[in-house]
Amino acid sequence: MYRSCVLLNVLKSISILLLPLVFLSLTLSLCCATSSRTELNESLVFATEQLQAFKVFDDEQPAGQVSARSFICVPLFRIFSLELRHNIRLAADEYIAVSGDHASLGHWQLEKAVPMKEQDKARTKWYLRLWVCASQRFYYRYLIYSKNGQGKRILRTWEGQKIARMMQTYEIYRSPGLDIFGEAYPRSVGGGFHLERGWLQHEYVIELKFVWQEHMIISGLGSKAKLRLLLTPLNVIDDSRIEVSRYAYNHSEFRPLSQLGVKYSQGSIVIFRISQPLNIYNAFRLSIYQTGSSSKQSLGEVYIFPEQIRGSRGTLQLPIFASLQTRAIGQLSLPYLVVLPMPKVEAGNLRESFHHYWPDNWPTMDVGYRGVGASYYQASTTHTENTIESFLAVMRVRGDMVQLDVQLTKDYVPIVWHGFGFYTAAKDQQIRDRFDLRYVLIRELTYAELKASRVFILKRWSLQEYSHLNLRDASQSQRIFPKLSEVYETLPKSLGLLVEIKWPQLMASGLLESTQSLNKNVYVDRILQTTIRYGCGRPLIFASFDADICTMIRLKQQVFPVILMSIGRSHIWDPYMDLRAQSYQQAVNFAHSADILGTALHVENFAQKQQLVSVALDLKQVLFLWGNDLQNEHLLEQFRALDVSGLIYDQMDRVGPASWKRSSFFRAPQLLELFGAQCVASGNSSSIPGAKPPKPTIWPKLR
C-alpha cells in the first residue's frame, strides 16, 4: 500500500512537470503555423487600442533591447475629463489638448499633444479616452491652442504649475475623476490655480503703445477730454487677434478688445497687442470716440498700414482724419513694438515654466551690485566691477546672487559692461588731459576691435586707464569686457545671476541716454540663445530698465523669468518718457500686464513709507530694491524684516551677510536639480544634470 501511494505521487509529479512541456510544444507548433507569433498571441488578450499602446512603448526602447513589457508595461486605460471654470471661455477657433512626458502624450511637444473632444455645446466640458502603456508614473498638463492658416498650432494658454499633474500606473483601478483647467495640487507649494500665456512660435506680435503723457492733438479738443479707442483690422480674412491692456492696480492684464473699445484719457496707459501669423501683414483703423457725446460717429480716425511698421520699434506720426472725411483734424504720435519668435524656438517644450517661479517662503536674497560693488567711481571697492573676479568675491562673502550688465557689440557678441561706451585713444597717443580722448559706443565696435582698444574712465577730478585689464586671455578673472558665455561657464551654478540687459531710454525731456542702431529682436535673441546654451540650470533672472525688452523676453520663451528695473519717483535722476517707468505703481501695473515675475525699484521710493513694499508683494510679485542708501546694515535689516525678495547693494564685503549667514541660499543640491529642468524645457538637454532616473512602479506578485 505504501509503495502504491509513493508511485502515485511520483506519477503526479511527473505529470505536473510534463504539462508545461506539452503546453510549450503546442505553442511552438502554433508559432510555426503563423508568421506573426506576438501579434496572434496578444490579439487573443488585448484589443487594438491596447496593442497600439504596446507599440508606442516598444518604439521608445533602444534597438535590440528586450523590454519584458509583460511585467513592466501595463496598458492603462485613462479617461481624461476636464471642465473649464473661472470664467474661462474658448473662442470659436480654440481647442483643448493634453500633453505629457509619455510618448502617447507627445513628450511635451505642442504639435504632438493629443486633442480632446467636446462634451457639451457650451464647450466647457472635454474628455479623452486613451490607452497608455506605462512602466512608471507619467506627468501631463492641459493646454488651449488654435490653428493658423498653415495648420500650425498656436499655443494660447497652458497650465503653469511648477509640478505637472501626475498619473501613477496603479491608478488604473481608480476612478479618473474630474480635472479643473488651471487647478492642480491646491495644497502644495507651486500648485493651485495658475495659467501661463503661450510663447511665440508661428506668429508675431505688434504692440501699439499709449505710454507717454501726450500722444494726440485734435483741433477743438481739450487735454482733459475722455475718449474711447477702438482698433479694427481692415483685412478681408480676419486672422488677427487684438487684445488690450488698460493699467489699473490688479486689473492690468490683457483682455480681448470689446466692440465698445477701451477708455483713454491723457496720462493713462493703454496698450493694444495684435497677434498675427508670420508673413501676414494687415492694415488697421483706430477710431477715436468722445465719451458722453450724443453722436454715434467717431470723433476722428487713424489708418495704420503695414509698410509704416518697420523694424522692431519706432514711432508712427499719423494724421487724424475727421469721420468719413479726408480732412485732417489732428496728429497722433504712437510708438510701436514688433516681437518676433526666437530662432529655433520649436526646441522649447511644455515640461514646465519658470516665468513666475520664486516661492514666497524663500528668504531675502543678498545681491552684489556689479560684483561686490561699483568700482570706477568708488575708491573703497577692492575689485573691478563687472569682472569674474568681482563676481566670485560675492560667493566668498556668502552673497546669494550677483547683478551684472550685458550689451552687444557691433557683431552681436554679448559682453559684460555697464556704460554704453567708454573713452579711448590711439595706441601710441600721449594723453595729457580729457580732451585727448574720444568717446566710443560699444555698439560701434566688433568684439575684436573692443579687445584691442585702450580704455579710460573719466572720474570727477582724474583720469584713469584700464587698458591693462582689457585682456584676451580668458583665464584672467580680472579682465574687463568678459563675454557673457565666459561668465556663465566660469561661475558656479550655485551663484544666482541677475542679468540686466542694457538699452538706452528716451528721457522725459525728449533727449536720449544714448543711441542704438542694432535690431532689437536680434539683440534680445542673441542674449537668450547664449543663456540657453551656456547659462541654463542655474537661478537666473533677466532684468531691464526698458519695459519693451521685458515684454520681448516674456513672449519669446518660457524658461527664464524677467523683472522690470525702475527708478520710480526720484530726486536724483531725470524721469523717463515712458510712464511705465515713472512710478512704483505703474511699474507694478506693468509687471501684472506683461505677466512677468516682478520689479526692482530704487530704495528712494520707500524712504518715507517702507510698508509700500506690500503693493507688489500682495500681487504675488517679487520686489528687489537697489540703491546706494542700502550700504547701511540697519536699513538692510529693516527691509529683510518686510520680506522683500532681494536687496541689490554695493560693498557687500563690508556690509554683507558674511558675519551671520552660514552659506549662500542656492548651494542646496535640491535647488540646483530644480533649476536643471530649465535645460530640458528649453530643449538644450534631454535630461536634468545630476538628477536621479525615475524608478519603475513595483507591482505586487500575482498569486
UniProtKB/TrEMBL annotation:
Q: Name one Pfam family in it.
A: CBM_20
Q: Which GO terms describe its molecular function?
A: glycerophosphocholine phosphodiesterase activity; starch binding
- Which segments constitute the CBM20 domain? 60-183
Per the record, which residues fall in region Disordered?
Answer: 683-703
* Gene Ontology biological process terms from the UniProt entry: glycerophospholipid catabolic process
Q: Which keywords annotate this record?
A: Hydrolase
Q: Is-annotated flag, keyword Hydrolase?
A: yes
Q: Which positions fall inside the GP-PDE domain?
A: 364-659
UniProt entry tagged with the keyword Isomerase: no
Q: Name the chain's protein.
A: Glycerophosphocholine phosphodiesterase GPCPD1
Specify the species. Answer: Drosophila madeirensis (Fruit fly)
